[in-house]
## 1
Amino acid sequence: MAPPGEPKECGATDLAIGVITGGSAAAVDSVVKIVRDGMAAHFGGLTADVIHVDGTLADDRAGQVEEIGEGLRLVHARPSSPLPPGDDGSGWSEGLRTVLGLARERGARGLVMLNGEIISMTPEWIRCLGEPVLSEGRGFVLPVYQRGRYEGTLTQLFVVPLLRALFGHQLWYPIADEFACSGEAADFLLAQDVWTTDIARQGLEFWLPVAMCGQAFPVVQSVLGPRAVSSQRPPAPLGPTVGRVAGALFAIAERHETAWLDVRGSEPVPVFGVPPGPASGTNARAAPIDPERMLVGFRQGVRDLLPIWERILAPDDLGDMLALSEYPSSEFRMGDRLWARVVYDFLLAYRARVMYRSHITQSLAPLYLGRVASLVLETRLRPDAAVAQSMERLARVFEDEKPYLVDRWR
């Protein structure tokens, strides 16, 4: 493998660019155009293979290689292993495994994974993700997006603070549905035993940053800009969405307990580019957030799920939630400390298997609604920067409350 800046091996490609689809030719065409423009603008003279993986490809299309520009090829492939029954062809974990394998077969020095459903992608993203690997010798690159005021609240109120407190890495967006990595990092990922597990099927995008930050590969973040996703796919119901995310994070915590039990505090992870300030206003594509409606869902959850929560929540935390359900909207605030302890209670209950794990994780959804409503009620009359400050404060509280989790885990 040639070091950054040195000639590649004969016949190898400089950069592999992966895209996984479920029958969407338009997504592939869009990625090809972006790659062509990005390579011409930023990596002139280098070669790239766009590796397109789709489980619905016809027999005569799989394995096809097209010339799409000078030094650029489009490679079509099906996942290396059969997709599970009922999969629409977009099985991401098997698709990614296939991309990684083909990239290594082609001797790529670096790999950039793109999400064909993101419609805000620009040719600049090829540089932002690829340059730290090809020119700076970085092992793994995570994106930093500019988010709307209340965009991505499940990520910001749950994923970010929990993973930061557990593993000690300050990541803006610890979800690798888009990323870049070196050839050596791709070899490492392919060698892991995660690919046939539930984590791979339900939460590989959360596992990747955890796995890479715990190794010797230099990890960085790179600023890409706004993240707007095609609205063609209807949003998933909240309960299953929260359940999937919580189940993935809790399974990762259980699998990697030796990597986080002794971690205290957190450390910044380097960022390429200027970290974005809070986006002004709300994302035009996002549905408006109605805290009153969310509080209806929270209070309904208190009425319907109390027998479940009695087996999950510590008595004091359950009592606080019951009290909150009686508060009028004008006085409703779910504090950072209470939310952190609730999340830790759920993680502990998941580990102890106090009931079916799917029941545990999905029953977190109404409490999450209450936490989002609290954030909106607290900040809606304040400047945009107040939302970012609230998120940072929450992450620090998760760190401060971590001994609560560790003492009960041990």
## 2
Amino acid sequence: MTWLQAIAYFVGEALLSLRRGWRVGLLAILTIAVSLFLGGLFALVSHNLRGQLEAWRGEARIVVYFSADASQELLIEARGELAALSWVEAVELVTLADARERFGQAFPDLVDVLDDPDADPLPPSLEVRLVESVRVAPLSETRHEWLSGLDGAEWVDDDRVWLDRLESIVRAGRVVGWGLGGLLLAAAIFTISSVIRLTAYRYRDEIAVMRQIGATELLIRCPFYLEGFLQGLAGGLLAMAGLWLVYAGLGPDAPAQAVREALIGKFLPASSVLAFLALGALAGGVGAIFSLRREFVELDPGID
């Protein structure tokens, strides 16, 4: 038998076994699909947030908010004071109208909140962009107090403070996601192992006959290995398809578009998708190997 004939035989036997035991096989596929889907969802959100955080850090600013009744002259004077500082790269004045326009662009479905004439939650502000040498660490206490002491200043907000907190949350979420995905993947391996063990037991008479006529262990085991591999690969494909449907379902018309872009603005890169498919196939193969080792030892204690 040539290698091509052997491969054709292995694939045919694996597909035949899958077709005969499709009910239990479907359970194994769904189990691994759920584990990879959850892992992929965490990876998708983490991937987008990580990229978004890097972009936000490059644009991080200090925002000095003033009272709503602050005069234009006061704001211009404060901007001049800030622009003269050596650690300041640029200062942008954001008026009430500018703030409302920005909010409407970021949250078009919530713009009606700003229509109440008796309340204006968007005060004028000065956005301070720092020079690159001091852009990494949060604002020092001395500089924070100086900014807070500007005439009319009511609140100083440093973007890098909440960016550091958000980055910590992303790291913790990534650990939780991979831990949960790992547990579910272990359950999927166990399920596939059980399915392959049942399949091998169902074919125990055929296996005994094949051994009696001199069939090698490779010839006997490979169809089962391939069956587990195909189950894992099918689970990975199903998981990635489900993840794509979720991603595509939250399209450009989704509410809070800014939040959507930050969480799932871009789908996983092709390398990550292939990695998840390979992980599913590997999990199926590992489950089959563990199952067959135990099952074949039980069928024939003389086999290592």
## 3
Amino acid sequence: MTVTEYIDVRERASTLGLLLGSELVILPRHFDSAISNADLCHEAEATTVRKLLLEAGLNVQQLQPAETRLPSAVQKSSDWIAPTVFVGSMLLTQNPYAIQVALGVLNSYLADLFKGRLSEGGVKLTLVIEQSRTKTCRRMIYEGPWSGIKDLAPLLKQLHDE
């Protein structure tokens, strides 16, 4: 797992003309480096992840321009690649259990997805956390077995509180 500084998600969304309407947001690929919206696309699993989180009662947004839908990027890999998820500071302040619910939903989905396979299955999950005090963002990239996702909540809370 790696943790690095990340761009200001709110400012970047504004620069690209995208409206952040939620505190839990699925970010498109190349969000941090796109020159325009034409450079953006969603991970193949973005729609599935959004639907799962909505079914769990979480308010989640898939960030894209109002007038168009972004294409999906399909990447062949033996690992499951999740979309990047932004967790706003207000979500963790007002509903600290929301991230546990979200990670639990992903964990259950992946348990079903990898059921019956010989190996546990690798996943890559990127989460961007907005820090409580400074409102700066940090990116945490988890690469490992799907069963490790459920254990990330305390680390995310720690990043939020720093």
